[in-house]
Amino acid sequence: MMMGPVLGGMAAQLDLLNSALRGHSTDRTLQGEWGALQALWQALRSIAYEAAGKLDRGDGSTASAGIAFARFAAEFHADIARWPEQLHLQPPERFGLLQKDMAFLEMLQKRRLQIRREKIGAALLKM
């Protein structure tokens, strides 16, 4: 998965949504969910940095990092997509365009990641 562009898109979505949330900042439930979404983004960044470091060092496969990244990215995408509707927010049009781009990237990666998971599983089952 192209982790860098995905993280950039997520960061842009967070910025756009953050601007739309300004008036709702006193809601404790919202604060907790916003904190969880930010933590998920930070975890995705950590996975991407670790995978990039492995590639730079020639230090083994990044398949497991790619699979974990894709799963967490799908969770992030689903979570952030619910926010405008749940809070009756009208984020900028760019937010919706980013959502569509992220969904398209996610769709492109699904089959490739399925093949990777199958290869990993087959290798583990041969042990």
Helix fraction?
Answer: over 70%
Low-confidence stretches: none
Biggest sheet descriptor: none
CATH topology: Butyryl-CoA Dehydrogenase, subunit A, domain 3
Coarse morphology = elongated
The count of domains is 1
Name of the CATH superfamily: Butyryl-CoA Dehydrogenase, subunit A, domain 3
SSE pattern: HHHH
* Chain-averaged pLDDT: 86
Termini separation comes to 27 Å
The proportion of residues in beta strands is under 5%
Number of strands: 0
DSSP summary: helix tally = 4
Written description of the protein model:
The protein is mainly alpha-helical and 127 residues long. The protein has 4 helices and no strands.
How would you summarize the topology of this molecule?
Elements: H1 3-21, H2 28-57, H3 63-87, H4 93-126
Helix pairs in contact: 1-2, 1-3, 1-4, 2-3, 3-4
Quickly list its features.
about 0% strand, about 130 residues, Butyryl-CoA Dehydrogenase, subunit A, domain 3, mainly alpha, about 85% helix, 4 helices
Compact overview of the structure:
85% of the residues lie in helices and 0% in strands.
